[in-house]
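Example with several molecule types.
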Amino acid sequence: MAECHPVGFQWVMEAKQRGAVVIHVDPRFTRTSALADLHVPLRAGTDIAFLGGLINYVLQHGLDFRDYLLAYTNAPAIVSDEFGDTEDLAGLFSGFDPATASYHPRTWSYDGARAAAPIGHPEMGADDHDERAAEERLGATGEPLTDKPRMDPTLTDPRCVYQIVKRHFARYTPEMVEQVCGVPADTFRRVAEAVTSNSGPERTTAWVYSVGWTQHTVGVQYIRAASILQLLLGNIGRPGGGILALRGHASIQGSTDIPTLFNILPGYIPMRRAHRRQSLDEFVAADAGRTGFWGNMKAYAVSLLKAWWGEAAQPDNDFCFDYLPRIDGDHGTYRTVLDQIAGTVKGYFVVGENPAIGSANGTLQRLGLANLEWLVVRDLQMIETATFWRDAPEIETGQLRTEAIGTEVFVLPAAAHTEKPGTFTNTQRLLQWRHQAVEPTGDQRSDLWFYYHLGRRIRDKLAGSTDPRDRPVLDLTWDYPTEGGHDEPSAEAVLREINGVGPDGAALSSYTQLADDGSTACGCWIYCGCFADEVNQPARRRPRHEQSWVAPEWGWAWPDNRRILYNRASADPQGRPWSARKAYLRWDPDLRRWTGPDRPDIEATKPPDFQPEPGAQAQHALSGTDAFIMQTDGRGWLYVPTGLMDGPLPTHYEPPDSPVANPLYAQQANPTRQVYPHPDNRTHEVGSQVFPYVFTTYRLTEHHTAGGMSRFLPYLAELQPAFFCEVSPELAAERGLEHLGWATIVTARAAVEARVLVTPRMRPLRAGGRTVHQVGVPYHWGGNGLSVGDSGNDLLAATLDPNVHIQESKAATCDIIAGRRPRGADLRRLVGNYRVRAGLTGPAGMERPDGTDQARGT
Amino acid sequence: MSNHLSGPVEDVTGQSGYPAGHPPRMGFFTDTSVCIGCKACEVACKEWNLVPESGMDLLGSSYDNTGALGADTWRHVAFVEQVRPRESAPVDLGMPAVGRPGGQEAADADRDVTWLMASDVCKHCTHAACLDVCPTGSLFRTEFGTVVVQEDICNGCGYCVPACPYGVIDIRAGDGRAWKCTLCYDRLRGGLEPACAKACPTDSIQFGPWDELRGRAQQRVDHLRASGVPRARLYGADPDDGVGGDGAFFLLLDEPEVYGLPPDPVVTTRDLPAMWRAAGVAAATAAAVMVAAFLGGRR
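Resulting C-alpha cells for the full complex:
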C-alpha cells in the first residue's frame, strides 16, 4: 500500500500512531513491510490457503462472533443435500461438467429456498442461462421456493452453512499453511492471534488488498475468503472493519460503477444477452432477486433507459430495452485480443491504457494490434501501443514485419486530469470533484470532449436515416451544454444526468425515489443523490475538523452518501451498539428511527423487530435484522449458493504455473479457469525443472502502471531509471547473478533482460517440501520514453479467472540466467529451445498440468 | 556572549541584523520513522524550484537512484537495507495493541530485515559556513532564519562547497554557480509551506517555527523510545552541537553514519578564533624570534 498508494497510506500511519497493529502479508518485503509491525512473506499465489488457515483457526478455536454470525450471516442456513464439497470430490464441487470445464450450480442451492446473486450471472452461456435461472427459481426438488432459507440457529445441522464451511477448511491447519505458503506455523499463529484478538464487540480488524489478490485465476475467491473471515469475526458493516480494495489507479472504482466493462451496465445491472427475444420484465426476472434492494432492479433499469433515450423511451416500447447492445459470451480484453489475432475484431480504441506493456503476454497483445484495420490511441504520450508497428520486440525477432502490418494507427493527444474537470471515484466509493487547473494545450482534449463530439458527428452523418438500426444512436439524449472555445461539454451536466431527475425535472436525492414507470431518469442508480438539491455534492470540501468524525460533507459516497456499507450490522439485533467503543448506528426507540453519524442503509424507520408480511417484495421483504440489504435473504454469505462460476467456497488451487503439486487436493489448478490456446500463450508443467523459480510482477512508487505517465517525465524516470529484477542473495549465488549486473528471465512466453538488484528483502521459502526462490519483476518498462527496458508482462501467460476475466499475473514460474538476452532471431530461438526442453511442443491447447486437470477454453 | 561563529544562538535572525519583530525562525523536522520512501519530496522540490534532472543512473543503492544532495538534488531520500540476527523477543501483537510505531522492523523467519528511509535536505545551520565564507554576499540569512543563495549574485567561486560540513551545496555543471535548497524562500514569503513538506503524505517532513518543531521532535523521540525503539534519536536539534543546531533537523532510527550523515559536523568557522589565536601566537613567536635574532646579532 505504501508502494502504490502512498497518499492513502498516511491513514495507516495515523492509525498506527493511535495504536493499530499493522501486518503486511506479501511475497516481497516492500516499503509497506518496512513500516509494518510484522511482515509475513508467503509464496505467491497461496493466499487462499493462508486465509483458509485463518478461517479454520477461528472455527477450530470457537473464536467466531457468534451473535453477529447468527443474526447477520447465512451460517445457520441449510444447504441442499445434493451439494458435494471439494473434500469429498478430490478438489471439485458437485455439478462439474468436464466437457465444458464449468459447473452447473444447481446442487449448491439452499434447501428449498431460492437465492439470487446480486448481479445474476452476467454472462453464463447463452443457452444455459434461462435453464439455470429456472433451476434456481424452482430449486433442486422442483418444489415452489421461498426466499428465505431454512435455518438451524444451533449451527449443529451437518448441512448448515456453518458446518459445511468448517468441514471445507478443516485441513487448512497452521502446518498445512506452512507447507503450502511457506509461512512458518508459529508466524501464522501470531497473525491468527492478532486478528482474532482484535476482533469482536470491542475491536475490529480491516483487510486491505490490491491486485496482489485480484490478479489470479482464483482472484474472486481470494476476496471471498477474506469475506468469510470478516463475517465470522463480525468485521463487516462496523467502524474499523471491512475489506478494502485498493484499485489500480485513480477512479478505477468509478470505471466499474459506470463501467468500461463488457458485461455490466451502470450500477452493476447485467448486460443483455443475445440469445433470444426477451422483454424487460423477463430480463429483470431472470437476473434480479425478488427480495432485497435488487428487487427494485426494474426501477433502476427503466431509469437508466430513460436517462439514455429520454422521450423515446416509453412504456409501449419497453423503454427502448431493445436498443441495448447484447453480448453472447466472453468479450473481455483477452478474448478480444485473441479475436484480433483471429481477424474477427477489426478496430480498437485504446484510451489511457498501454496494453502492449500493461497487459499480460505482451506478444499476444502486439500480434493482435498488428492484425487490425484501425487503432485509435488516446494518450498523453507516444506509448508503445501506438508505436508497436515499428518497434515492437516482435519486429526485432522477425515475428512481425513493419511492411506487413496493415493497421492504420490514429494517435490523439489527450488532456490530463489537471486540464479538465470531473470526478474521481476512489476505493471507498467516494466521489471527489476535480476542478480544472489549466487549459489543455494544442490539440489535447478531454475524453468527454472526444466522445461527445464523436457522437455528435456520427449523429450528424446518420441524420435523416430511416434505418431502424440507427434509431438507438439517433434517439440518444445527446444535448449536453458546451462551453469555451473548444465546445467542451459540461462535466457537471453529465454528473447531473447520472444523478437523475424526477417527473418535475429536478435533481433526485436518493435511489429510493426511482420508479419503474418511466417517471424518473437516472444514469446510474447507485450515484443517485450525488447532485441532490442541484448541488455538486462531490465538490464539497468541508474540513474534517468542522464536522463529525465520519466527515459526511467531504465529497460524496455512493450509495446515498453512506460511508460504511451494511452499517445495520454495527448494532446488535436489538439495535444497540455492540460496544461503546465501536458504536456507530443505534435504534432510538423514542424517535422510532436509526440514528448515528452515518446514513443507515436499512430504511431509517424500520425497527429492529420488524417482520415482513408474507409475499412482500424488495426491501419490504427484509426484516429489521437483515443487515445485508442487497442479498435476497438479507444475510452476509459465508457460503455462496449461486452467482460464482468456480464454486460456493474458496478452495486453494495452485496457479497455472506452479513449482509444486497442490498439497491440498488432487485437482491442481482452478478447474474453471479460462485458457486461451495459442503457441505463445503456454503455461508450464507443475514443478518444472526448466522453469524452477517463481516470479511475481508489481509496481514501484516511482512509476505509474505501464509507464505512460512516468517513464516520459524526467523527474519520475530518474528515480527508477532502468528495468530491474529483485532476487535474494541465495538465488543470486545459485544462479551466479551479480548485483547491478544483467539477468535474462525466461518463460515459455518470452525472455526479457533486466538489471539485477540482490537484496535481503527477497528471501527463499520452504514450501511443498522444497526451497522456493521468488524473483521480483516490476512491470513498468517498454522501449519508449526516458527510462526504457524490456517489459516484465511479456513473461506472463494470459490465463483468467472465470468470474471476472482477470489474468493471473501475480504468480508464475520462470528461469533466470546471468547475462543479457540474445538479440534478433536468436531471442526467439532461446525461447523456442526452452519450450522444447520443457516439452511444450505439441499443439497449443489446454495444458493439463497434472494429467487429470481440466480447464475451460473459450 | 553573542556566539557569532559557533555555539548556541538565541535569535539567529536578529543576530544577522534583522530588526525586532522579524518572523520566527522557520525550519524542517524530518521524522524518518514515518518516511515511506515515496520520494514525493524530491519530485515536488524539483517541480517547484525548476531543478534540472540529475541523471538516469541505476545506482544499485537499494531504491535510491539519486545518490546524494547536490546542485541538482535538494531533497534526497536515502534507503538503507539492514539485516540483523533474529531478535529474541517477537513483536507483541496481542491486545491491547502495543506495536512499535515507527519501528520499521519486520521479522522474517530467519533474519530480521530493516529498511530505513530518510529524506535529507540542506540543514540551514545556525552557523552556516557557506554563508560565512561567501565573498560576494550571494549567500544570505533570510528573515526566516534560513540560508539562501542568490543566483544573480553568485560568481561561482565555490568557496562555499568545501565549507559545508554536510556536503550539501554544490556547483551546477554547465552553469558554474552554487545551488542548494532555499527552504522555498519564495513560497515562505507567500505564506506557503515548502513544496516538499506540502507533498509529504505521511508528514515525515514537517515545516514550522523552529522552537515548536523542536518541542514536537522531543515528544516524538520520547514516545518512540518508550515504545521499544531505543535507537531513535534526534540529529541536528542540539544548539550545542558543532553548527549551533540545524534549522532542518531529523529523527533517525540508527547512527547518523548509517544514513550517510556526518556524526559530529562542525562549522568550519568555529575554529577561526583559535586559528587566529594560533596565527597570532605564531606571528608573535616569529616576531619574538626575529627580535631575538636581531638582538642576538647585536650582541
